[in-house]
Design a protein that fits this description.
With 328 residues, the chain is mainly β. The protein is 7% helix and 48% strand. It has a single domain, classed as TolB, C-terminal domain (Neuraminidase, 6 Propeller). A hairpin with a 5-residue loop joins strand 10 (154-159) and strand 11 (165-170).
Length: 328
Amino acid sequence: MRYLGIRFCLAYGCAWLFACLLVLGLPAHGAPATPEWPVVANERPLSLPDNFNCSAWSPDGRRIAVVEADPSRLNKTYNRIWLVDADKGIDGAKRFLCQVPRPGFTDVIWPAGNHLYIVRNRMWDLNLGGSLYRVRVADGKIDEIMRWPRSVVIWAEEVSRDGRYLAWQPTGGVEIVDLAAARKSRKAIYHWRPHGGVGISWSPDGKRLVFGRDQDICVISNTGKGLKTVCRNASHPRWSPDGRWIFFLRETSEGRTSSGLEVNPRVHAWAVRPDGSGQHPLLPDLTQESHHVMCSPSGDRVLYSRTEYREGTCPERWFVATLRPGRT
């Protein structure tokens, strides 16, 4: 009977504690009653010339890899890679790293460690395929480790944090390449009707991928199982370093003309949880466009750009901002 009494007292005490938590409006696990999510604060411009575009944070968050494109539209001769200060851009510490051997649309991936990767995609007006290069950060030594034909169009790509696997989007699909293998074979894990992809990113643990599929953002395992649509009317997803959020871009407009054209379209940075909940804009108080959202490795800062419309040119202006908790 004494043990029954002890059990009754424990059960009564737990029920009383749970009731108190409900009255106080707090969840039983101690989480905030009001949902919190990241929003942008303390925005500041990053000093870069018009023909410099940011591509990747360094693993320590102190530098940014930028691509210097040939400013000549008629003579596409090079893409140069620079490492610049993450706070001051070219006004701070900067270092020339390497020059991509041939022209093309160039992207930089800096997952971790002492190497970064450069993807030089095909040129539309040249009979030139694509290449993947690995660059040693210490001295800029560049090696081509993979090549693909001009018929293969790569829309987005990212290397896993351990530098082992490349995930990319050829037209209408998601593929994984084992970079440690002597023969770089392509393994398809998902395919849909042949349209372009719009962004791909590894989860921090390397077990899942988030990618754009037409106007949807989807999550899938690295084996091709468990496909889930996270949100719609969205593109260019990137996983946050802590795995709690997916950053993406969403285009809004004031409607369509009779011919179907968007009226005053604007692109804005948003965030959503991997389960599809908590969708919200990263810059809720700003009406300007925001593109190319990249979160720092520590997760406390974000890098993005806006198009500056001028007569004859449309350069990107880059900004670094702090991420702080926001609430509904």
